[in-house]
Amino acid sequence: MKNIFTNSELAHTYANQSQQRGRTSSGSFYFEGKTIYSYGQHFPIANIVTNDKGEEVMLFTYRNYSNTTSKQISIVRSATRQYKKIYCHTPKGNHSTNFDNWLKLAKQQAEKLKKAKKPELYLNELNRLNSEVSEYTQFFSLEIPQYLISVLSIKDKNEYLQYESKAVEFAKIEEAKRLKEQKKKFKEDIKKWFNLETSRLYTTYKYDFLRINDNRIETTQAVQIPLAIGKKLYELIRDNKLSVGDKVLNYSVNEIGKEIKIGCHTFKQSYLLKFGSQLS
């Protein structure tokens, strides 16, 4: 089976879903299953999804990035004309991420009403965003968050000024909702990670975690550590012999206390001691 394609071939192979994966020779443009990416999983261009009613659409990013990514987006759009498309910020992500980015765009347009000589330009854009959000939420049978409705429904300068005066209150509501969604997503994703269903944890969380997989220790950031090194690290922490500047593989120990920071990883010391006790 062919796995390396030209840009055009790759997009058409993805659109036809005739195989599970493929990439270009540089590896910067590739697909896995129903999602096609530009330069990595941080930038999904499109994702084929099915809702609870069995309806299939293609979620398609409205973002642009580099010239190369923009060209790849154009190629995918052209090769997937057979799909109904719904546009959003991140085709493979949680709903709150997309809602937050629509909110950002809506705020930018609404703020321009304060000094606008032609407010209809910005009101038209708010209406367009409202249509985009409505199509997305209808497909997934979701309600549009109230904090987003409050911006999308602005009709003139005075309504924006009223919204602006309550911005702090809205921000608190948004933050509380974001944290709730993030906590829920983390619980789902960390469970999958511990069950070896995923290779790393993409959900943002302030601490990292470890698991044993065959004869190695793996971190939630996909770093692999031989068991022998893991045991040695545990013993150093247990015996208070770990020092700032020590190395774990190529990572430096940057902080030791209730939290131990090793490279870009942050662990609770109590967690490392509990995990390490399994290795003795």
Description:
- The protein has three domains: 4-88, no CATH class; 95-194, no CATH class; 210-279, no CATH class.
- The chain contains nine helices and 14 strands.
- The chain starts with a strand and ends with a helix.
- It is 45% helix and 20% strand.
- Helix 3 runs antiparallel to helix 4.
- 21% of the residues are buried.
- The strands form three sheets. Strands 1-2-3-4-5-6-7 form a seven-stranded mixed beta sheet. A four-stranded antiparallel beta sheet has the order 11-12-13-14. Strands 8-9-10 form a three-stranded antiparallel beta sheet.
- With 280 residues, it is of the alpha+beta class.
Per DSSP, what share of the residues sits in E-state strands of 2 or more residues? Answer: 15-25%
Structural class: alpha+beta
Q: What is the domain total for the residues? A: 3
Name the poorly predicted regions.
none
- Indicate the radius of gyration in whole angstroms: 23 Å
How many β strands by DSSP?
A: 14
Biggest sheet strand order reads 1-2-3-4-5-6-7
Provide the helix percentage. Answer: 40-55%
Provide the residue-averaged pLDDT: 92
Could you give the order of the helices and strands?
A: EHEEEEEHEHHHHHEEEHEEEEH
Q: How many strands, which pairing sense, and closed or not: the largest β-sheet?
A: 7 strands, mixed
Distance between the termini: 46 Å
Overall 3D geometry?
A: globular
Number of separate helices: 9
